Amino acid sequence: GIFDFFYPLPRLNLATFYSDELQGYGYADILKKPNFKLGALKSQSKLAKKAMRDTAGWFPHVVTDSQGRASITVDLPANVTEWLITAIAADKGGRVGESKGKFRTVTDVSVDVLAPQFLRDKEEVTIQLRTVNHLSQEVALRSQLGLEGEASLKAGRREGPMVIGKQGENLLPLTVEATGAKGMATLRVALDGPPNIHIGGAEEFEIPLKPATMRQTFSGVQNQNRLIAQLPEAAAVEELKVQVNSGLLGAALNAATVLVAYPYGCTEQLVHSTIPNLVLLNLVNLAEITDEQLGPLAVPLTKAKKNAAVGIKKIIRNQKTDGGFGLWPSDPNPSLPVTLTALYALKFAKELHIEGSQRAYNKGVDWLESLKGAKFDQLGVLFGYELSRFAEIGLYDQPWKLQIAFVEGVQADPNASITDLIYALRIFAGHKEKSWSRFNESFKNTSTKEILIQRLRKALEQFEADSYVRTTRTQWAAFSPMGFCFGVPYLISAGMGVLDELEALPEDLSAKLARVLMTTMRNGYWVSTFDTAQVIFNLHAILSREAGAVAEEEEANPRRLVARKKDGGVLGELKRIPQGFVGIFAKPGMTAGLSEVIVDGIRPNEVAYSTVTANVPFASVKARSNGMKVERSFRRVTATGSEKLEFGKPLRKGDMIVSEVLVKRDPVQDVQRLPSEFIVIEDGIPSFAQAVDDDE
Fold first, then answer.
1. At what angle do helices 336-351 and 357-371 cross, to 10 degrees?
2. What span, in angstroms and rounded, lies between the C-alpha atoms of 309 and 303?
3. Which residues contact 241 (CB under 8 A, 6 or more apart)?
4. Rounded distance between C-alpha atoms, residue 539 and residue 546, angstroms
5. 18-36 mean pLDDT
6. Taking the domains of the chain in order of start, what are their residue ranges?
7. What's the per-residue H, E or C state across 590-642?
8. How far is residue 184's CA from residue 25's CA, in Å, rounded to a whole number?
9. pLDDT grade, residue 153 (50/70/90)?
């Protein structure tokens, strides 16, 4: 089979690499570099020995004899390597000395186990015990094996003699079955030989054991005071999280737990998984909200603060030498919309005095000021976004002519989009404190701002999420500089934020849009890192006011919310947090009782959801294509390009093989039934391989 080709147990004649080892993108560009060494990335195909250690011994208190001599006994690890000894001494007179020495450990016979990196419960696998003779003479040995832990030896010799030729090897097949789902199975190998042969002590090899399940997350949808989730009957539930949001602050604080755990990647993910939590933490501190009031949310916010310096350093690495930002570190040139997005976030970090943010911000501003408007795509869908970000960042030298023309164009267009209305008003908000600016002078005696405010209010009242999503999907190519489209949460929060900043947000409209935002949360966050972060940025003034009212609200409205199973059994009381409640229950019971969770005490205007994390047996995992097709092809790299690989032909040393995976999806007809925003592919086959030996 194909796995046997890439992972033969007796011998692996390929150096294999995964896409993430080649930076995930553009491995062909990396291969062009003449100094790129593939051998440095060779993956591990052997189990590590349990007795491998970097430090063989540490002896903090050694007393010498009258001659100034001392000795120690060290039980050396299994490492065959060169060891460094460092001795530091002090005498009664206060003199201090230090000396270093080296020695090597060698073995005439070594043992390795060729096996999978882990076993799942009830899996049966044939592994190979490889014994290698490093001498130039034949060696007669006797082996003895032991297997401990939740695993059994189904076939193979536990003990017996073996004779290995000079510089040869012996392969002993063993069939092992996992009988447990956690912990380790330990294979112990002891060798006996002639006294003149150097053989180490018994070696132990650990094989991790895992359950034969897939970890999946299921969302519970609110129906009044009930949260309904579709759970597989055979699933074992590990955790149930119930969240009730009374306001936007509670929703935003819960989103912080997702952002702080989000993996770093492109520039957008870096800035939006680092800085928004710091904004929330600052709001919490200014409102004097205690860790006790934050409850389970205190830990991720504290972690966000600790991660801030590291996050800023990673952001700076994505910054080009001229100060601009590309979406990816490998992008050769900076991007205007990506740079504006990064600087808008860095502005918050700068105001919070996060180390390194001021320098990165100033460097980016210098790049923007050097453009003189040359990078604007005046016909693109991001034109208004770019102009409004310029105004919000607050540069002295604004592209005011373009900003004036854009606002006038939006006012003159009766069919202007809701996004353009928001961008036009953002430009007004950005110039609010600059009465002297040429932009303000241009609209000084006009009612343009008031007209745009009325039109935006009406557009938000009549906003249809499906129509907006459908439109943005048709403009996907235009959003390519950003790498993603703007979601509904971004749009709603941007509209709320700019109206609030211009003191033009009616209370009833604010309540309506806040509920829309809370109902669009899924699994604790809004659509993506960008949308989640932008909700926090756009509404930071509203969130700040909500944070300031937390203590008064809790004192005036003491409440108790209890979560119960479908049959009425009590799960527990939800912990109160600012503007909401949250409860996290470990191993809460069977799926039948958790498919419907009842929340006692919830109010009609509150939004709730549940997240169920469960281990689903592989036999119960339903495979679905959702209109997708996955095709694989293997190609051999040649001097002029590549050719299709024929598995019947042998590989020669130096051959380079690329595994390409093509994913196709049928056209989506109904935006309401969109199968996925993105997909994640986990592939057991390496993306790249190089032959290190000729096939024989």
1. 140
2. 11
3. 524, 582, 583, 584, 585, 610, 611, 612, 613
4. 11
5. 40
6. 2-26+625-691, 109-210, 214-240+553-620, 257-375, 377-538
7. CHHHHCEEEEECCCCCCEEEEEEEEEEEHHHCCCCCCCEEEEEEEEEEECCEE
8. 35
9. very high
Assign a CATH topology to domain 377-538.
Answer: 1.25.40
CATH number of this structure's domain 257-375, picked from the four choices 3.30.1360.40, 3.30.470.30, 3.30.465.10, 1.50.10.20: 1.50.10.20
C-beta separation of 514 from 495 below 8 A: no
Query: How large is the C-alpha radius of gyration of the chain?
Result: 32
Report residue 519 as tokens.
């109902």
Is the per-residue pLDDT at 28 higher than 70? no
Homologous superfamily (CATH) of 109-210 is: Immunoglobulins (2.60.40.10)
Distance of alpha carbon 274 from alpha carbon 536, whole angstroms: 12
Could you give phi then psi for residue 597, rounded to 5 degrees? -105, 130
Percent of the chain with pLDDT over 70: 84
In this predicted structure, the answer to whether residue 60 has a pLDDT above a threshold of 80 is yes
Contact call for residues 232 and 217 (beta carbons, < 8 A): no
> Which burial class, exposed, middle or buried, applies to 344 when counting CB atoms under 10 A from its CB (0-12, 13-18, 19+)?
buried
pTM over 0.85: no
Closest CA to 489 of 523, 459, 454, 519: 519
Q: Work out the pLDDT band at 27, boundaries 50, 70, 90.
A: very low
pLDDT in tens, 92-102: 888 999 999 99
Task: State which amino acid sits at residue 280.
Answer: L
